[in-house]
Batch of 4 targets.
Target 1
Amino acid sequence: MSDRTFYVTTPIYYVNARPHIGHAYTTIVADVLARRHRLLGEKTYFLTGTDEHGQKIERSAAAAGVAPQTFADQVSRSFEDLWRRMGITHNDFIRTTSSRHKEAVQHLFATLYERGFIELRTYTGQYCVSDEAFVEVGPGESCPECGRITETLSEENFFFKLSAFQRPLIDLIESGQLAITPETRRNEVLSFLKGGLKDLSISRSSFSWGIPVPEPAASAAAQKHVIYVWMDALANYITALGYGSSDDSLFRTFWPANVQLVGKEIIRFHCIYWPAFLLALNPRLQHKSSEEPPVLPAEEHSAWAREWLPKAVTAHGWLLFEESKMSKSRGNIVRTETILDAFGPLCPQPEMESAALGAQHGHDLFASDVLRYFLLREIPFGQDGSFSFDALITRYNADLANGYGNLVSRTLAMIAQYFEGSIPSPSLERNGGQDPARTERRAMAEAIRDDFQAIQERVHPLFGRYAFHEYLLEVMRLISRIDNFLSASAPWKLAKSSDEEDRKDLATSLFVSAQGIRLATAFLHPVLPFATARAWAQLGLGSIEDAAAQGELKLLHWADLKPGTQLGVLGAIFPRANKGLAQKMTDMESPIAPASIVSTPVEPAPAPVAANTAEQAAAQPTAPSSISIDDFAKIEMRVAQIAVAERIPKADKLLRLVVDLGNERRQILSGIAEWYTPEELIGRRIIVITNLAPRKMRGLESYGMLLAASQDGGKPYLATVPDEAPIGSRLK
Ligand code: MSP
């Protein structure tokens, strides 16, 4: 192991919503980086966690009818559970409600207060609750960042003297000492800085869900204050390492972070507030709060920054779904669990993926690889990218099933068949004599060997620049090259020949393909940790984790693949996925409001009146007594026209309907047969909930629910709409 250390962080995620694939994206990138740096032999630390304080969380908990801590515990656990399911290798999971964090944040606040960088003032301004920030707009106007209406807040507040750091921050960013990538984000931060910095309000007294301002500052204020949630949250990157505690050995080893990954919307918090807090910790800046802070020469800030500021902040773009940023408030999220549940069962031998944890975990790890690959291959890092289930399946089939998986399977199957599962001995020689096909395959084999080193020199730097999509494109090019080489060599034909030269070429072609697979597998390992473990074992090379830990994947040498190596147990790696899986995932995406995962009893809302089976009604999650408009917006109700209605044999209460939704037709089973004849239903315009998870009844799938009004088991009256209401239009 080298002396180099590598510390990577993700933002800590708000617990007002369950994780979706936007959160998974950042976590996956961090995991890929951590795995890569571990295999480079660097001592690596990877931190993630949850951001649990602030008004937003307090309000979400109140809406769910539970205490904020109960709410935070449940949602935070759903993040941790998901990362476990996905095989994420974080070293720590920090929660801002943990006592280790709270104490260290108070220590940070007290230090800055003592240094004269925090003082008490009165402030009136417009506050955006969603972004947890004061914004510069007039009363009643909306937030320039997110468009939501702001609230007027007048508070006695503690202020941080942010304005003192304008010049030092510009210098540090312009000199590259604090690297911000991509370039567009760096420019955005610089232009914001050059526009001038106002002091920052860093406490709140209008609500209490936060870390209390510590003494002696607390006694100076008339009211009780909690620390501003962004100061609380940003500090996680050092509190997790033991900053401000009796054991700060991790802090001394790993801080400053090598890279802090963020979504592009929170770049300013990370590139202005965060480094300013850290610069203010410099004891040489100490002053009385009534005085102006001393002006230090740039070199002094630079020396402090070397020890205290993150080396780089890197922003990625947004995952878009149906054209807009995937987010809870827009109600257009895709849950990672959907992908795990849908793709998992495709895993051929799940127990191989996770011998220790069993088949279910194997399913999850397999599916997690699929999502990892898609996100990194599909989206140029730094840019926004669209997610769709169709694109996921298309990419999976093209690159993983037909590309990498197929190459591994066919090569190894031929080695098993023609060489009794032992890697054959090549004879790389250029001279093909009079036979042009032989000359061609020998030239191709030799070119692959000659290029073996150069490919690695070309591909590895792409990773270092976070150009994951180009990196993976190069790996796929390598796979196609080996595929083409196999097709040109046609080992299955050579195997039928008794010619000595053909026998040699048969061995060479399979050896060279095995080398290509070995190289592709090493390249893919940080991105596809589980599939590559399997391929490596099938190649007879043992544990890829061990190879990674021993630094053997950093740079492969041709000579390290020994002829005679016995292959491991063979099996498919990535079986083809059926296109129908996309519909399955769409159907599985029935929204789950955070309230439905909170177990504390709440007043049950009146059951939604739906003309469906009692069984289905019973399956409705218990709703809190009031729901937010965002929660309501998750229920997709559309106008539909009944195209087909028929009885189901041996089911007295059920009707099978096919409804027309404009751009699609769906089958819905409905328990209204006692009250409606099929004939009177056909042609009616009704209202259908279209985003419920599908249910099976009497062996048939039901993809939605009709709306109807009824009283205690009485006749359900179908909710209808006038004929001019367009089919497919949404009810809001
Ligand atoms: N709690 C703050 C961060 C504090 S860090 C000291 C916060 N949390 S968040 O839950 O809103 O999510 C933050 C991060 O999740 C984003 O910066 C991004 O990394 C990731 N994403 C959330 N939605 C996303 C997309 N739709 N697309 C890509 N990433 C997304 O902000």
Target 2
Amino acid sequence: MSKVALITGAGRGIGKQIALTLSKEGYNIVLNFRTLSDDIKKLKKEIESNNVEVLLAEGDVSNFDDCKRFVDDAIAKFGKIDVLVNNAGITKDMLIARMKEEDFIHVLDVNLVGTFNVTKNVVTYMMKAREGRIINISSVVGISGNAGQANYSASKAGIIGFTKSLAKELSSRNILVNAIAPGFIESDMTNVLKDELKEEITKNIPLKRVGKPEDVANVVKFLVSSDSSYITGQVINVDGGMLM
Ligand code: NAP
């Protein structure tokens, strides 16, 4: 029976690449996104061309009821979820002096509470199955902090604490929980930055290039494979050596 992976925020960027990479490994994909579009329908077809099934799971991860609905739909269709990748995330950057309360709360709601909302619903089934892999997408700034990203960094640091706690709680059920901390990866999230800033950041990356979504997706592929069955509670930086 094919394995099943649920990926949040999988319509574009890193999440899309994770969905494509896992489908090439034979995973049926539960593809979460916020709003159905032609791009999402095209992506569904592209994934299906790898001879796997796709369930479109519309919903906002910051809404607990949405998450419960699409997790239940996934169980109704596939009977199980073997892998959960909590990838959905947003930024609302601003220095603290000018950061609005709603922008602090919104980023925490999507990035951290969203990770809880999906995990809480999925874990019920993984515990019954007595196996599972959960990969949470954090960020290097969750470890180092970053001026102008107090909200985002706090959410990503929170994801690391959440990951380690769940790794301890769920180890007896053979559920492995790890986090990936990407550095600077090409996507819509980073495309908004000015070219000069991107050049400055690249200069400080030992490998002298920004990352690609594939760089993150390949580590997810490893973390869901049997090759990583003795790894849990870890944060793996995928950052070209940016943070060490
Ligand atoms: P992106 O291109 O902006 O994609 C973000 C994805 O998250 C989109 O698919 C978006 O859906 C989805 N999303 C946002 N809010 C959501 C919500 N409430 N419910 C469901 N889905 C939601 O960003 P990315 O670079 O691929 O980032 C993916 C993850 O990697 C994020 O957690 C990000 O923090 C993390 N990360 C990225 C970098 C980087 O350099 N790019 C570095 C470190 C960590 P819509 O299309 O509906 O907006």
Target 3
Amino acid sequence: MKTKILKIGIIGVGHLGQHHVKHYKNIKNVKLIGVFDTNSTQASKIASKYKTTKFKTVYELINKTDALSIVTPTDTHYTVARDCIKFGKHVFIEKPITNTIKEADELIKLAKKRKLIIQIGHIERVNPALLALKPYKIKPKFIEIQRLAPYSIRGTEVPVVLDKMIHDIDILLSIINSPIKTIQANGISIITDSIDVAHARIKFSNNSVANITSSRIAKKDIRKIKLFQRDLYCTIDLLKCITEIYEINGESESKIQAPFNYKGKKKIITYTKPKIKKTDPLKIELINFINSINGIENPIVTGEGGRDALKLAIKITQLIKKESNC
Ligand code: NAD
């Protein structure tokens, strides 16, 4: 298949958007056209750093491109993405897709009608520590996820569930292929006017249970997942990029083995710590976006995937608001 050189623009070049610019400069089949940011000083700074063009209006940039990254605050995703799609452009929207399901559905419908790609930046899906689980049959019955971060003004335009927990909701939905049976949730507001700390217990129809905790009022960053299933327990440190797998009678080549007896039978616990090649997940996502437009790959997280994660995040937020009056 003949691949096309795609003309790319970035809308919103703050904390994360500037990394989109940096990566696009080095991705095959990409011609970086330029950037737009409502903060003109920031746009100038990033355009000059990466030797690209700063556009005066978003429409001038949209007009000159085939596809755009939208890296603006969440509450602007819908209007910015809608404009891009209406002008026939593919979009990579940073997570969460939008603020509401209605907005997400409208974007998905508009893009489908125009045969355009919508990809959502749920970056943890390509975290190498999570990808290290690929060789294993992962069917967890109990999942514990913790995502803690020190306070930052960025992201506080939405509750912590939509800013931080949504990463883990997306991971969870990608691991467990079963409808949700029940959700219990609690949370509190500490610094902002919305939920700063949240906890959700999600039970699926296949009886798997997940406990997720997220906080934006923590001393240090922690992003950890623990998965428990018959004959297997594993821990994933998404931040340090460490995955550790404990299996009963696993086929692991691991030298670390612990024999034990259970009901008269000899068994062995094997410990494996896969060698993880550090990669840049954002670059992987953007290459996947370019390849998806060129028809070589499918988006890792589609608009529908982003919408499903948002739907559960909103449900959890509503439950917390009802339970905790915040
Ligand atoms: P930021 O505040 O640092 O940057 C946002 C930029 O967008 C600012 O420079 C602002 O001036 C600009 N902006 C605001 N409204 C705009 C508009 N209508 N048009 C053009 N520019 C506009 O925020 P950030 O931390 O870079 O976050 C941006 C988005 O990325 C958010 O949706 C956030 O949830 C997401 N994000 C994702 C991850 C991840 O891990 N995938 C990490 C951080 C942020």
Target 4
Amino acid sequence: MLNSCEGKSVVVTGASKGIGKGIAAVFARHGAKVLVVARNLEQADACASELRAGGGQVSAFGGDVTKRSDMDEMTRVAVERNGGIDILCANAGIFPQSKLEDMSGADWDTVLSTNVKGMHFSIQATLPALKRSRCGRIVLTSSITGPVTGFPGWAHYGASKAAQLGFMRTACIELAKYGITINAVLPGNIKTEGLADLGADYERTMAASIPLKRLGTVDDIGYAAMFLASDQAGYITGQTLIVDGGQTLPESLEALNQA
Ligand code: NAP
């Protein structure tokens, strides 16, 4: 039973909906003090009050991961409200689609600055508090798209998700002397508001390509994040955990259909 997050202070970026909300909900259910972060404060507040109604100790902060000053203020608020920061879930990310022939410099900058620079800013800003924790944990939300698979329209997104892992493999060495671990969850296709924007056809064809024959839930990712953040995972650092219902494994459609 993983109960080591009880009483810990957890910051989850990109948590007003989708996977981040799922991660926040799992930690809150297990007794952590959670700060839900998103640009839209009203939505972050609505998420926090929904999670509080389920018994969690949750509050909201309106901030943009691409702005270092917002991340500094987020850290100050988390420390003031929750007594420090033990766990950062750097989850905020965007996945607009654009075929590479049409992809503009602005498209690249938007995706890379949120998914990679924003991740870095959130880590850099929370680092002093994570060091004080003495058992600091960072959990990144990467993706199967990029590090393992590809999908048309997501060359920039895939590059950003692979970049997170390149960052992690050096960060884990730099952070080890503080007792801080950093690991990444690689979700497959998870039912979120952001994914719903891609349309019903996308969801249907994706579900058909997954051995477990369903999209993942935000809880599936929340529990993986909670494991990587637990005391029991204290010797795991710089590693990836794919949570995809087996989607990356079939060699062909035939392999799927024969199963
Ligand atoms: P989502 O439903 O669109 O939710 C995204 C969340 O991030 C929202 O709370 C959004 O709120 C926040 N956000 C976006 N830009 C931000 C910024 N600059 N600063 C702070 N918060 C920001 O997305 P999701 O599907 O849950 O995806 C979350 C993460 O999982 C992303 O990193 C994504 O790459 C990864 N992922 C998702 C899937 C999937 O199948 N859904 C699969 C693999 C990986 P505001 O707009 O108010 O800021």
